[in-house]
């Protein structure tokens, strides 16, 4: 054991000591060249990748967004159900406003003049019958159109189905009809520009056909059964640069599964009705509308200089540089 005084003196000397690492100069062209090369690689990584490419000197944050949309334009149709008709925004944008999305009607099946009465159910596994014993009074199924009355009536010349209390005549399960569809930023610019990947990539005004083409789809084919289209807006902004440099980039892709073999109901459709009084009796026109739903998704980040991440990345780079030098010293020591 040591005396108390000697231990105190020894501890005091250790506390106030300062040691430095021993420097060993290795005169070797091969080792020196490899050492400088590795140091250059480390410096290139710190300056080129960390600082310039990844902007390690910046503090970053992700985008929080809200998008408003407005649809404009008219369409002309000539069908056996409606005749010659002009459609405007109030007709084909349903509902008028949605959050970060909108739906454009591109095709429809109309069942006009429906009233609440009794009629034959459409043929199906639960509705086809040969007599009233096959129909159960009060029975209803989510796959059918109304409540059964218990009677079996003629649906067509060759087929009988159960009578239902429903909105009649019932909607027919027809395929949608094929149709032939005719072929920088300020108020002045917006009044004339239309988005084009080459000439006007910053214009926020889009033609529906151009959006489909950008996603690799044919608009006329997609308009028959409908679908879901994603509008992706990317903001990648360097706030150390002028604000005018912060511009969005638009990309488009189809989101729904268009493969009919792997999808029970390909496309996109909705049903809505327009009610009216006919001789004091409530009637309606049922519309099964096919269209394209546009989902708007915003991604991105913004970065601005901050001293904390700058010092952290510089310190990590210097430590890596020192580690390379120490590794070469150890390599030569054991050589």
TrEMBL record:
Transmembrane segments: 311-331
Domain of life of the organism encoding this protein: Eukaryota
Entry GO terms, CC: plasma membrane; postsynapse
Gene3D superfamilies, A to Z: atp-gated p2x4 ion channel, atp-gated p2x4 ion channel domain
Catalytic activities: Ca(2+)(in) = Ca(2+)(out)
Compartmental location: Cell membrane
Protein name: P2X purinoceptor
């Amino acid at each position: 054991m040591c005396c108390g005084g000697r231990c105190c003196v020894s501890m005091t000397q250790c506390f106030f000591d300062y040691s430095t690492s021993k420097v060993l100069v290795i005169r070797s062209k091969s080792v020196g060249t490899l050492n400088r090369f590795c140091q250059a690689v480390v410096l290139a990584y710190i300056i080129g990748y960390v600082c310039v490419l990844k902007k390690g000197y910046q503090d970053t944050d992700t985008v929080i967004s809200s998008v408003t949309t407005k649809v404009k334009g008219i369409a002309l149709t000539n069908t056996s159900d409606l005749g010659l008709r002009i459609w405007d925004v109030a007709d084909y944008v349903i509902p008028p406003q949605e959050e970060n999305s909108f739906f454009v009607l591109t095709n429809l099946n109309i069942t006009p003049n429906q009233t609440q009465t009794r009629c034959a159910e459409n043929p199906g596994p639960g509705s086809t019958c040969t007599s009233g014993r096959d129909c159960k009074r009060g029975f209803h199924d989510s796959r059918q159109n109304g409540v059964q009355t218990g009677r079996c009536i003629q649906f067509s010349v060759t087929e009988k189905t159960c009578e239902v209390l429903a909105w009649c005549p019932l909607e027919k399960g027809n395929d949608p009809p094929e149709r032939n569809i005719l072929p920088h930023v300020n108020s002045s610019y917006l009044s004339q520009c239309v988005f084009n990947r080459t000439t006007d990539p910053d214009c926020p005004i889009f033609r529906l056909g151009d959006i489909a083409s950008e996603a690799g789809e044919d608009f006329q084919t997609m308009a028959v059964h409908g679908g879901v289209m994603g509008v992706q807006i990317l903001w990648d902004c360097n706030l150390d640069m002028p604000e005018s440099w912060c511009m969005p980039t638009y990309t488009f892709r189809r989101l729904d599964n268009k493969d009919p073999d792997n999808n029970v109901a390909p496309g996109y459709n909705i049903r809505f009705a327009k009610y009216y009084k006919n001789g004091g009796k409530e009637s309606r026109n049922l519309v099964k509308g096919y269209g394209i739903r546009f989902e708007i998704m915003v991604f991105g980040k913004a970065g601005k200089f901050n001293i904390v991440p700058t010092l952290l990345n510089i310190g990590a780079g210097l430590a890596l540089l020192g580690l390379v030098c120490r590794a070469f010293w150890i390599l030569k020591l054991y050589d």
